[in-house]
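ok so I'm stuck.
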Amino acid sequence: WAGVDEFDWTGTERGAEGGDAATPFAAFYLGPEQGHTEEGHNLGWLWEPKHWVQLGGAFKRRGLKVCVVGASYDRSFWERYVRTGVGEDNQEWEDRIGTMEIGETFAFLKKAKFLIGYQSGLSIVHHYLGGKGGSWWRPDGNSGHPGRKLCFSNEMKDAWIRPGWEKNWLGMLYGRETPLDVIKEIDKRGWCDG
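replied:
not stuck anymore, here's the structure
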């Protein structure tokens, strides 16, 4: 559980400075296009692009900026599926996709109120670094691959959480939590506060 307790923050100052400039903010990791369209946790649009827009709008109304993060290979999903809806809803999100190295990204996320995202190592390591966040997993019995059975146990959404840090994590299942459910839980936990 303590594998990243000695994380070396050397060389990550640019990410920390970017996080300071964006504060207060919620970070979103939208994930790769392939994970929504070809195979992966959100195959078949169990969580639609409009849901991201609804979630972002709720956090904007709570006084937070929304910053999207990820690697350069995550850019196509943002540009093809989410960005237009954000603009149509008169929102402005900060696009940080592909602009930082991974250590800089973690330093940036350390300044976020929380990270909500597609299931990934980014969300998991952010949790191990002490950050608040959540992500979705594909529900048990619902294959994430169109041609073969590729399923996850529902318990996987929380099975890896560091003991004692359960309140810092929101494990969700695609098709179960709605944007309103996520917002209510984050409000209940006070993640947007102070």
